[in-house]
Design brief:
The protein is mainly alpha-helical. The protein has four helices and no strands.
Length: 101
């Protein structure tokens, strides 16, 4: 479950970020379209941020922290931020492309 939690948080915050960006831009994508676009963008950026590694902590510190607490707070934070930003960006890009037609 600890491996899936960052992914689930990234997907959920991506859907939220996509809906927020779509509402702000007044895109005609609808709630489902904004959510799906946000999930794709949020999942993608959350995954990339997870692969970038963990901030200023050494690998040994991060491994010990994850082993003792069961959940890595840095990983969860990166997933939420990456998901929201990625979902918002992809939805904004798609909203602009769709409004040009």
């Amino acid at each position: 479950m600890e491996q899936l939690l960052p992914l689930i948080l990234g997907l959920g915050s991506g859907a939220l970020g996509g809906n927020i960006a779509g509402k702000v831009m007044k895109s005609g994508m609808g709630t489902m379209g904004r959510s799906l676009t946000g999930i794709v963008g949020g999942g993608g950026l959350a995954y990339v941020m997870q692969m970038m590694g963990g901030g200023g902590a050494s690998v040994a510190d991060a491994a010990q922290s994850a082993a003792t607490s069961g959940l890595d707070i840095m990983s969860i934070g990166k997933s939420i931020v990456g998901g929201g930003v990625g979902g918002g960006i992809l939805t904004a890009i798609l909203g602009m492309v769709m409004s040009k037609k």
